[in-house]
Amino acid sequence: MNNERSSTAVTRMQALSKVAIALSETLSLDQLLYKAVAHCIEILNFDAAVVYFLDTEGQQFVASHFHGIDHASIAQLQTLPTDCIGGIVIKNGKTVITENLAPYHQQRPQVEGFASLLSVPIKARKQTIGVLDVFSKAYRDFSPEDITLVESIGMQIGVASENAKLFESIASVTGKLRELVQLNQRLASCLHLDSLIPLLTSELASVFKANVSFLHKVGEQAVLIHSSVADSDISAPYEKQVNTLLHAEPDLIHVYHENENDSLFPFFVQFNMKQAVYVPFVYGDNLHCLLIGKSSDEPWSATEREVMEGITKTISLALTNCYLFQEVEKGREQNSNLRALQISAQEKERQRIAQEIHDSINQSLSGIYFHLQYCRDEIEDSPQRVKGILDKLLLITKENINELRHVIHDLHPLAIQKFGFVGAVDELVKTFSLQEIIQIHLSVSGQPVRFKPEVEIHLYRVIQECVNNIIKHAGAGEAFIRMTFDDVKLSIVVEDHGCGFEPQKLKGSHAYGIMGMETRVRDIGGEMVLTSKPGHGTKIEISLQIDLRGGGVDHE
Ligand SMILES: Nc1ncnc2c1ncn2[C@@H]1O[C@H](COP(=O)(O)OP(=O)(O)OP(=O)(O)O)[C@@H](O)[C@H]1O
Ligand SMILES: [Mg+2]
């Protein structure tokens, strides 16, 4: 007798370890319930089993697995109230044995045909989270070993289902992270605002099941940058309230639910939203906010909110990329305009020089040629007369040489090569003063250094344009040029006390003279600041680092 009992115990121990092994083989809740219940029925010769878990609110049991129950009954047993037998199991955390189910058949006609029921608790972390019901068609009294075995299986289901849930949540987090990484990549490679915003809207909808999204600039007046809702008219009080809230706690992500603050957020009603998340982020100097709203009740998990926070960082990066790209494009356009202008200016200059050579030197050379022909023919007959003509020709040739010098100077001021740009500027100043066009006061302090030829020609042209502008526009009788050389830097100030102007009005206009100056200064690695105000004259400050390792001083 004893032998028989101990061999049954061994068989059951083996059966139990079989169940344990089977449960450890999978992390899918469906599969592990199937295996646990199948083994349980097989070992103890039961006819049916149902596994129930309590729903999140603890209001009812929801069936997770059926075994041996007919199809018609399954639908009716899907959910059960907590006041049935399982309810007692949950409440007390203890097994309930119902050896005779007959009195309950009226209450639960679906289990008609079953005579006995054993309900054991499914526990996880000391909490009863569900019930394992096993049925037999024949009346039977359950031995203590039967009960212990089913209870052990119930315990194992509890632990395994916790593991499976953990695994499911890890899998969902991993999935979300993967989506986020992909979204990050897509957003980061988007360089046009026009395509970034729609992309953002569709991605937010798919990642967060959101129906509404707004991108806001938060300030005195919230500016709506984008809305996923066409023609959205967001009332002022909402914007004001949101502004106040976000300014008060700009680091937090704010979550709101329907009815929480109806009067505060009328747009919940307006857009049929049940919940919304405000994710503030700083872009440039401004506080921005991404609002993600959805019309379903299903709450966002803590992980989803973390991901939302992460996304705003990508958005601010993507926005920065877009704006920078726009600026680069604008700069490129301006550069190509400037280049076109330079080319046309060069062309005009060539025409002017050609005209000048034609009108002056060419004319005189032709004159000289004819006079020389005359002298050759007449030299023997009237040498005195020829001498007079030759004297005149010498004078004309000298004038032509001078004229040619002017043309050459215009093309490339020779003075720069000889005396450096400081000397060339001095020449320029003297020419204007001599011609009584304008009185220019030039002062040079410190020890002048020589720059590379291309740097010197740029500096000379910039000062030349400053002086031309003063003559053309300032209406001033005098101008001031101050150059200061110190150990590391050259500073140039060109100033007049003339009519002045509003520099911001030049933006987008065709101020190519000033634009050209800026380009030249930038090209040689310097900085230029223009200050002007109507009635207060104009000041242009240029500074240029002197590279003592060679860039600033070497000059052939
Ligand atoms: N010293 C100055 N005093 C008053 N107004 C000035 C002065 N310098 C520039 N401006 C104003 O700025 C405008 C732009 O100057 P900018 O040199 O770019 O063009 P411009 O002199 O009109 O033409 P360009 O130089 O191409 O022949 C001028 O038209 C003038 O209105
Ligand atoms: Mg000009």
Automatic annotation (TrEMBL):
The family database entries (Pfam families) matched by this protein are listed as: GAF_2, HATPase_c, HisKA_3
SUPFAM superfamilies per the record? ATPase domain of HSP90 chaperone/DNA topoisomerase II/histidine kinase, GAF domain-like
The UniProt catalytic activity note for this protein reads: ATP + protein L-histidine = ADP + protein N-phospho-L-histidine
Q: What EC class does the entry list?
A: transferase
Record-annotated Histidine kinase domain positions: 356-548
Q: Which GO terms describe its molecular function?
A: ATP binding; phosphorelay sensor kinase activity; protein dimerization activity
UniProt keywords, alphabetically = ATP-binding, Kinase, Nucleotide-binding, Phosphoprotein, Transferase, Two-component regulatory system
Q: Which SMART domains match?
A: GAF, HATPase_c
InterPro entries, A to Z? GAF, GAF-like_dom_sf, HATPase_C_sf, HATPase_dom, His_kinase_dom, Sensor_HK_TwoCompSys, Sig_transdc_His_kin_sub3_dim/P
- Indicate whether Glycoprotein appears among the record's keywords: no
Keyword Transferase on this protein?
yes
UniProt cross-references to Gene3D superfamilies, sorted A to Z: 1.20.5.1930, 3.30.450.40, Histidine kinase-like ATPase, C-terminal domain (3.30.565.10)
Cellular component per GO?
A: membrane
Q: Which PROSITE patterns match?
A: HIS_KIN
Documented EC number(s): 2.7.13.3
Q: Which domain of life is it from?
A: Bacteria
PANTHER family per the UniProt record, alphabetical: NITRATE/NITRITE SENSOR PROTEIN NARX-RELATED (PTHR24421), NITRATE_NITRITE SENSOR PROTEIN NARQ (PTHR24421:SF10)
Protein name (record) = histidine kinase
Record organism: Brevibacillus fluminis
